């Protein structure tokens, strides 16, 4: 660059190099650099690579919140360094966590919300595993008290459960008794649940908002069937509700639906704060009906952070920022605010489902009238393109709409799924519809499908035995 000088011969301009000419010229990708670099250079290198990621607002595969109010983001930034486990140093953050637990206990109709046990987690998957651990430990205590063996626990669930439940069974040595899909039955039903229960069953998992199609399982009917089982056989099998999504939808939109602690059979519930709880990723919640549902020997006490710290979690260090954001949302929106947000999501989902059904080539599996999620398939008789072709075509315009096959015994069923979250407006839905309409004439020129199920690419659950299982993350 040309350097200008003043009357005294001193430079008036700063000599600066363009960003991409700064040292180092070469940056290794898979090993740590030998020396330092300017923070702006490091930022630009990382920033440029992240441009290749998809637009989170167009990601209709994920259940996770992709938008938050600036005030919530500001609070999270202010609390970024707070470790949720350190309740002695951050007592007010711990207080906000306790308030959230009490609010959820009331929302889910606990008999005595003050006695309900609960905690925050890093997500609904960790919360689900804590629920499963409590079921297993309660069963072990009962069996030992009876002088009986505890080496063959099993857990009954539908084949549509999220992958975290299969991980729980594998990691904690519990036999998973999965009810496969059959015909038009895509989730667990009361008769199939009871068929698989025996003296070694630690519990039944019922899903309020299936990952595969967004439908509610009939929790009340499953609970009634387990009540009848106990009356007939003496088997007392508790029920855990995986409400990762639905536990933050049903209380606001389906208040008469009995799925929560109003049912005495329900021992515990998990949900995700970072899905329809409307918080950015990093928080889930696990609640138990009362202290009897959560064995005390699962709770550890530590004092090396100062004071007595009871903890029940798979992770020790956890961010407090998302817990604070959850409390902000509860405070900011209140019951009616959450109701309006969730109703808008359901309205967008049901309208979009209807419009897609009217296009002709597609048939709805669900319509978004439970959680704001729906699945659809290519109609019978259309054999020149597949759901995987549709997914790939929409991706060209930035839309991530997952295509996948259903689990056993309906792996023949391939579907597309759309998750409507806060921020996915009627306007964005119209843009998606327009792109889908533009895509269909091109697909109609094909003589055969170009992509099969191996092209799905949406295995968010990272399950090794069934790599095409869709995730709720």
What would you say this structure looks like, in words?
Helices cover 34% and strands 13% of the residues. It is built from eleven helices and 13 strands. The chain has helices spanning 39-50, 70-78, 91-107, 124-145, 163-171, 190-195, 219-233, 250-253, 321-358, 387-395, 426-444; strands at residues 117-121, 154-158, 175-179, 201-207, 239-242, 266-272, 284-288, 300-302, 309-311, 362-364, 373-378, 403-405, 414-419. It has a seven-stranded mixed beta sheet with strand order 1-7-6-5-4-2-3, sandwiched between helices. It has a four-stranded antiparallel beta sheet with strand order 10-11-13-12. A two-stranded antiparallel ribbon has the order 8-9. Strand 10 and strand 11 form a beta hairpin. Helix 2 runs antiparallel to helix 9.
Q: Topology, pairings included?
A:
Layout (H helix, E strand, L loop, with lengths): L38 H12 L19 H9 L12 H17 L9 E5 L2 H22 L8 E5 L4 H9 L3 E5 L10 H6 L5 E7 L11 H15 L5 E4 L7 H4 L12 E7 L11 E5 L11 E3 L6 E3 L9 H38 L3 E3 L8 E6 L8 H9 L7 E3 L8 E6 L6 H19 L29
Parallel strand pairs: 2-3, 2-4, 4-5, 5-6
Antiparallel strand pairs: 1-7, 6-7, 8-9, 10-11, 11-13, 12-13
Helix pairs in contact: 2-9, 3-9, 9-11, 10-11
Keywords: Decarboxylase, Lyase, Pyridoxal phosphate
Family: Belongs to the group II decarboxylase family.
Cofactor: pyridoxal 5'-phosphate
Question: What characteristics describe this protein?
Answer:
alpha/beta, MYOD Basic-Helix-Loop-Helix Domain, subunit B, Aspartate Aminotransferase, domain 2, Aspartate Aminotransferase, domain 1, 3 domains, four-stranded antiparallel sheet, 11 helices
């Amino acid at each position: 660059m040309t350097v200008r000088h003043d009357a005294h011969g001193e430079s008036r301009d700063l000599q600066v190099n363009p960003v991409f000419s700064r040292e180092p010229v070469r940056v290794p990708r898979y090993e740590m650099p030998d020396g330092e670099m300017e923070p702006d250079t490091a930022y630009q290198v990382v920033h440029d690579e992240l441009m290749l990621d998809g637009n989170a607002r167009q990601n209709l595969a994920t259940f996770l919140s992709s938008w938050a109010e600036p005030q919530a983001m500001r609070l999270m930034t202010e609390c970024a360094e707070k470790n949720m486990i350190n309740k002695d140093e951050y007592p007010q953050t711990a207080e906000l966590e306790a308030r959230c637990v009490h609010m959820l206990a009331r929302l889910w109709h606990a008999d005595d919300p003050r006695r309900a046990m609960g905690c925050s987690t890093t997500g609904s998957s960790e919360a689900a595993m804590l629920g499963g651990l409590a079921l297993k430990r309660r069963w072990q205590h009962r069996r030992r008290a009876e002088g009986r063996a505890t080496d063959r626990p099993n857990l009954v669930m539908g084949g549509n459960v999220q992958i975290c439940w299969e991980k729980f069974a594998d990691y904690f040595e519990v036999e998973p008794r999965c009810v496969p899909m059959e015909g038009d039955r895509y989730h667990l039903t009361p008769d199939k649940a009871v068929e698989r229960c025996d003296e070694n069953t630690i519990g039944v998992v019922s899903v309020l908002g299936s990952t595969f199609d967004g439908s509610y399982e009939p929790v009340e009917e499953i609970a009634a069937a387990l009540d009848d089982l106990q009356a007939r056989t003496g088997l007392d099998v508790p029920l855990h509700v995986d409400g990762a999504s639905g536990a933050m939808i049903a209380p606001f939109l389906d208040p008469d639906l009995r799925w929560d602690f109003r049912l005495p059979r329900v021992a515990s519930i998990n949900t995700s704060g970072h899905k329809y709880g409307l918080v950015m990723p990093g928080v889930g919640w696990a609640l138990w009906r009362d202290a009897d549902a959560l064995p005390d020997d699962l709770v550890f006490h530590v004092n090396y952070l100062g004071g007595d710290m009871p903890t029940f979690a798979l992770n020790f260090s956890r961010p407090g920022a998302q817990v604070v954001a959850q409390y902000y949302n509860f405070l900011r929106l209140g019951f009616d605010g959450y109701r309006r947000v969730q109703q808008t999501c359901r309205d967008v989902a049901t309208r979009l489902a209807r419009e897609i059904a009217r296009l002709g080539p597609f048939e709805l599996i669900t319509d978004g009238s439970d959680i704001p999620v729906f699945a659809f398939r290519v109609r019978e008789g259309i054999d020149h393109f597949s759901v995987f072709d549709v997914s790939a075509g929409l991706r060209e315009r930035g839309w991530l709409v997952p295509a996948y096959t259903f689990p056993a015994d309906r792996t023949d069923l391939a579907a597309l799924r759309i998750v409507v979250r806060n921020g996915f407006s009627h306007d964005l839905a119209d843009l998606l519809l327009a792109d889908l309409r533009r895509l269909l004439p091109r697909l109609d020129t094909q003589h055969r499908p170009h992509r099969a199920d191996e092209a799905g690419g949406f295995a968010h659950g990272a399950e090794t035995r069934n790599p095409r299982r869709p995730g709720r993350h």
